[in-house]
Design goal:
Blueprint: E1 2-3, E2 6-7, H1 25-32, E3 39-43, H2 49-56, E4 61-66, H3 69-81, E5 88-92, H4 95-101, E6 107-112, H5 124-141, E7 142-153, H6 159-173, E8 177-184, E9 201-208
Helix pairs in contact: 1-2, 4-5, 5-6
Length: 209
Amino acid sequence: VRAGDVELWLDPMTGHKTGLYLDQRREYARVAAYAAGRRVLDCFCYGGGFALHCARAGAASVLALDSSETAGAAAGRAAERNGLAGAVELRAVNVFDFFTAEREARFDLVVLDPPPFARSQRTLERALRGYKEIHLRALQRIAPGGILATYACSHHMGRDALLAVIGSAACDARRRVRVLEPCSQPPDHPILPGMPESEYLRGFILSVD
């Protein structure tokens, strides 16, 4: 299926949701606009939407991580379909483990698009610790002048809470971050005033110094 500038491989019967995260289609292009000449790390890449768009946009290198070998296989198939097999390196690895093992690795653009850590209000406190940790590790790996694109896909993780987590992680990492673009779900995933749960996708594209 075509999503923006690339074709993605999906399995609508056994993949997550419809086999493609339709709510991120617009974000692929927005992030790829920053990718030219940069070393890109796509964390929780699933089918490779961000990774492939960044490679197509002229990234210097693209490393895509996902703990699911099935997701990695789909991303690999899509990379071949788009003639980008040599431009994207795929690894089936836990993202937290990668950051622990690769302490010296540096990137110019990091994408964080994890599964929902906060699936209920009851788990929010634990989720906040997880979001803080993953942002801290990402910020420690971004070269000065780099970009962080980060998303949270849970209604329980509000925009202010996500921004506070990013700020706290930046303070601990001794990095200065600035919001370049706030991000949200596209118009075909409408937000209903009388149903707060309908607003669930939040994110930011930030510069990192």
